[in-house]
Structure formats: C-alpha cells, structure tokens
C-alpha cells in the first residue's frame, strides 16, 4: 500500500509512504514455495553445523591459534570442538 501523507502549501513537495509489508509477505511465500514441501529446516541446520565443524577440523597449531583468536573476537562462532 502506498499513499501521499503530506503536501507542501505550493504542492511542489510531498511525503510519500510505501508499506512494504505486503511485498515482504509475498517474497517470503515465494521463498518457501521454491524450497518445496520436502525442505526440513532442522536437517538443514544440522547439515550446516556439521559442515562448519568439518571446515575447522584438522587445523595445525598456527591455524588453530588463529581460529581461537577469531572466535574470541566474535568474528567466527565457536564450533564446540574445543
């Protein structure tokens, strides 16, 4: 929904409001439709967590120190394998 909410006295300037709520709801509906009925968010999250653990496994001492520094700084989330 959009509307003109204010207009200057000489009608040269106005305030236009655009409500994106309906557009956002439609966008989200399209995303879920594209994901399909078989998409399992819990399984997707578990797979993402497993992939992150695998990515940061087997680090040498220098790599582990860098990883630990980045986790401590909040740049990377901890993987729970400490």
Describe the structure.
- This protein is of the alpha+beta class and 82 residues long.
- Helices cover 51% and strands 13% of the residues.
- The chain is built from three helices and two strands, in the order ββααα.
- The protein has helices at residues 21-35, 41-55, 61-72, and strands at residues 2-7, 14-18.
- Strands 1-2 form a two-stranded antiparallel sheet.
- A hairpin with a 6-residue loop joins strand 1 (2-7) and strand 2.
- The longest helix is centred in the middle third of the chain and has 15 residues, at 21-35.
- It is elongated and about 70 Å long.
- The mean pLDDT is 88.
Order of helices and strands: EEHHH
The strand line-up of the biggest sheet is 1-2
Number of strands: 2
- The low-pLDDT segments are none
Q: Separation of termini?
A: 51 Å
Q: Write down the overall mean pLDDT.
A: 88
| Estimated helix fraction | 40-55%
Strand content: 5-15%
Number of helices, counting only DSSP H or I runs of 4 residues or more: 3
Helix vs. strand class: alpha+beta
Write the topology of this structure.
Elements: E1 2-7, E2 14-18, H1 21-35, H2 41-55, H3 61-72
Antiparallel strand pairs: 1-2
What brief labels describe this structure?
51% helix; 82 residues; alpha+beta
Short description:
This protein is an alpha+beta fold and 82 residues long. The protein has helices at residues 21-35, 41-55, 61-72, and strands at residues 2-7, 14-18.
